[in-house]
Amino acid sequence: MCGIIGYIGKEKSLPILIQGLKALEYRGYDSAGVAVFASDTVKVRRSVGQVKELERTLNNDLDIASHLGIGHTRWATHGIPSEENAHPHSDCQNRIFVVHNGIIENYKELKEYLKHRGHHFTSDTDTEIVPHLIEDFLKSNHDFSTALLDALKMIRGAYAFAIIDAKNPNTLYAARFSSPLVIGVGEGENFLASDPSALVGRTKNVIYLKDKELAEITKDNINIINLEKQKTPLEIVQLGLSLEQAQKGNYPHFMLKEIFEGPEVVRSALRGRLKSKENLVKLGGLEQIADKLKGAKRLLILACGTSYYAGLVGEYLFEEIAKIPTEVHFASEFRYRDEPLDQDTVAIAISQSGETADTLAAIRKAKEYGLITLGIINTVGSTIARETNAGVYNHAGPEIGVASTKAFISQLTILVLMASYLSKSNEYSLSNALLQELEAIPEKIKAILDQSSQLEALAEKYKHYDNFLFLGRKYNYPVALEGALKLKEISYIHAEGYGAGEMKHGPIAMISEKFPTMMIIPQNSVSEKMFANLEEIKARKGPVFAIATEGDQNIATLANDVFFVPKTIEPLEPFLTIVPLQLFAYYVGTKRGFDVDKPRNLAKSVTVE
Ligand code: F6R
What we know:
By secondary structure, the chain is α/β, with parallel strands linked by helices. The protein is about 35% helix and about 20% strand. The strands form five sheets. Strands 3-2-4-1-10-9-11-14 form an eight-stranded antiparallel β-sheet, covered by helices on one side. It has a six-stranded antiparallel β-sheet with strand order 5-6-7-8-12-13, with helices on one face. A five-stranded parallel β-sheet has the order 18-17-19-20-21, with helices on both faces. The chain binds fructose -6-phosphate. The site of fructose -6-phosphate has 15 residues, from α9 and α16.
């Protein structure tokens, strides 16, 4: 999704902006632009395509003396990717320059209003109304910040803005509502970014701007006020990101690096939280509301995409281990449905970024109804992490690959811990075995990763197919959904995930020798049922690629290809069955010639509805 970078200080701003935009590339975008204050005027450059295209148009300008600038990568929402629609946008007099993440919902009525007042527009974007609105308020009010605040009060929707006023070249303005923005605090210089990863290597001190706050940033000072013009204290925190984490290292793609981080991700999520010998789970983040939580009669999991699929695994875990009725909702549906909610229900948001607009809105709705809200969030300090009553951080490190992989594994880990924590009875025998086995999971994931070349070879064999069916059952039903999502998002192959029992109710119609099925068929309580499905597919000549348990003698005679995973207990199977599917998707995507770190049309963090 769109990215923002801003700079004010002693250095030349353009190289800093370009480097920041490159760090934001992973979020997904289709055009880019910059505005810098130089020689008493603001210069703007915008271009369609990659940041390197923008860099090319800048040529020798990169070296110009400019100590204030803003930059943007745009992921088109209103209007096609074009130079006119790329940010920054400005007002009629080319005085005010704005870059924006988010969506202004009432932009049409504001645009009409401004047109009637004589403003002229040059793009199809919602963003362009902002400089004109400020310009309009400046006619009756000479103070820029006041005009900006007045404009913010008229806007409905989500926004993170970085703004330059050509008449105030010593100030960089920033404002946010429901879309992240972080100020990087330097010495004799300050930075602005929509994503802290763009600040890595520049500064470790950051301030997360809160909703409805406006920042006036000079090279030596930061002043933050709310919409009522009251000053708010500066909360400087340390950025927990290292350069190593923000780089690919020896891996060709972030996605592969992050799949290989699977064992470490489980260990970090368990660290200090699991005492398996004493059958004890300690979740510091939940302690303050532990009593209320243990009285919960129902759980609601709210999430999107991969995090939603982790939530589906959570549903099985909470019901089997904690014996608490659990429902999982797409956050985008939950926010608009009218279901009865009572206060014995606890809502759990799962989100890697902690900024997904639908998940945030869903959790805000749950709070309005008086529910306790928890977060399973990877990004420390993110909006959802801040707005939930309590929660458990993933500590998985930044996930940069657009296709989520290590976050899923980490979310599974936290869900197992939470289910054990909420378990009504500590004598519940599974919980003990479960916690002991959980500690063995990292080594078992590693054993799978060590055989990645097998999956690479299988990807070569299967890469030409245009369609795939993914089948799993019980704990592996969400894995089938997630495996299909991974394949489609990075290789653009049509893939459908189904609960295997549903196959007979429709999807079986698609089976033919041209339509392979990925069967997740470990030895467990439902494997007999899965084998029956496998026979039905073979009877219709469908190729079968099975993910099965090591030592399974039967499977090799029935499936065309098999990848074996180590044995584990049923509730933990998703940890092991998802990894080969992630690797398979990765290899198919790369073998089909795609840059899997930049899948088309996708954004890393979906901060608009
Ligand atoms: C898929 C993927 C998305 C995200 C979804 C939720 O690979 O990355 O489906 O899982 O957009 O994002 P978070 O977890 O940040 O709320």
